[in-house]
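Lab notebook, design round three. We kept the backbone fixed and only want residue identities now. Task for the bench partner: fill in a sequence for the structure below.
Input structure tokens:
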């Protein structure tokens, strides 16, 4: 099993560590991709076809508490709801935990997320990142953030970008074992940069990101153009961040998201995450921009939009989009 080999390579003798305490707690922010991760070159190791780049959302994310179980069984809850460990997600979580613990170690895991779950807001990214941070403390691994990023990626690809605040690039890497595929925080900061969360629906999506990615690769000939676009978009977004060129960042980010969704619409069978309300919001954003208001959006695998704008336009955008939650990550 390749995941086991990665865990052994990073942890070595630390895999034999015993829990240093009976309870630990860790937080990780969710992240919104400006240049998207869409498609895997290795399903088991969550290795991406392309690199990507994201912005973390401050205190929006997941807090994970791990306690040693008192009854020799695993128990997991998410926002006070017990997780069925026989479900698809439950099995995936147990496989992940088994990479790092002795058979006798059983946990009570309590996860609290202050973002909607499975609705296109990278909830799994912050969940697995916070879980890895908690395990690092529980077993006293003393790993570097880069090593934690690689381990978090085994649970959820985009989790490798949720170990840092600010702008983070996920290097796709080329190695088969994935040891060169990890997140790296960009040094550039942008205090005026804002993200507005427009929640159309908090319902769990019918088609998971994992399934949608694979369907796109397997059935859509247009996917062969995606790596070339990402290469160009990634360079443009990094330049925009360094030069504080908001127009370049906004138009590149929006175009990147729209191509991702266009590919999904032309898969077999098609995948449509946008609702009529999502499309109406897009039209409103384009109208406001045509009237001179510098605002752009991005959209992940879900109906919800994230507006991108600068702090000087917070008031007018809050008036145009009542109920929008504004995050200023910098």
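Proposed sequence:
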């Amino acid at each position: 099993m390749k995941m086991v080999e990665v865990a052994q390579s990073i942890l070595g003798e630390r895999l034999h560590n015993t829990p240093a305490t009976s309870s630990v707690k860790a937080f990780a922010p969710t992240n919104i991709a400006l240049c998207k991760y869409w498609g895997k070159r290795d399903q088991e190791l969550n290795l991406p076809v392309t690199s990507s780049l994201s912005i973390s959302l401050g205190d929006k994310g997941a807090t994970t508490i791990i306690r040693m179980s008192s009854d020799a069984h695993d128990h997991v809850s998410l926002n006070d709801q017990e997780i069925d460990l026989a479900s698809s997600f439950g099995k995936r979580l147990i496989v992940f935990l088994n990479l790092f613990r002795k058979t006798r170690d059983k946990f009570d895991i309590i996860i609290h997320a202050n973002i909607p779950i499975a609705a296109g807001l990278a909830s799994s990214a912050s969940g697995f990142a916070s879980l890895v941070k908690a395990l690092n403390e529980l077993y006293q691994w003393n790993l570097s953030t880069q090593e934690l990023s690689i381990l978090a990626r085994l649970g959820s690809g985009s989790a490798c970008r949720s170990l840092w605040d600010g702008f983070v690039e996920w290097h796709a890497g080329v190695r088969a074992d994935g040891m060169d595929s990890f997140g790296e925080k960009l040094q550039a900061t942008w205090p005026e940069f804002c993200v507005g969360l427009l929640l159309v629906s908090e319902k769990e999506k019918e088609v998971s990101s994992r399934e949608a990615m694979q369907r796109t690769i397997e059935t859509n000939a247009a996917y062969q153009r995606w790596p070339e676009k990402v290469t160009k978009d990634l360079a443009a977004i990094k330049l925009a961040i360094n030069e504080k060129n908001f127009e370049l960042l906004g138009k590149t980010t929006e175009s990147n998201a729209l191509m991702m969704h266009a590919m999904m619409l032309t898969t077999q069978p098609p995948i449509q995450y946008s609702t009529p309300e999502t499309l109406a919001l897009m039209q409103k954003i384009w109208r406001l921009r045509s009237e001179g208001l510098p605002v752009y959006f991005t959209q992940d695998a879900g109906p919800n939009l994230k507006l991108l704008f600068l702090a000087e336009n917070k008031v007018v955008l809050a008036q145009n989009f009542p109920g929008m939650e504004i995050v200023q990550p910098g």
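Keep this in mind before ordering anything: The radius of gyration is 20 Å.
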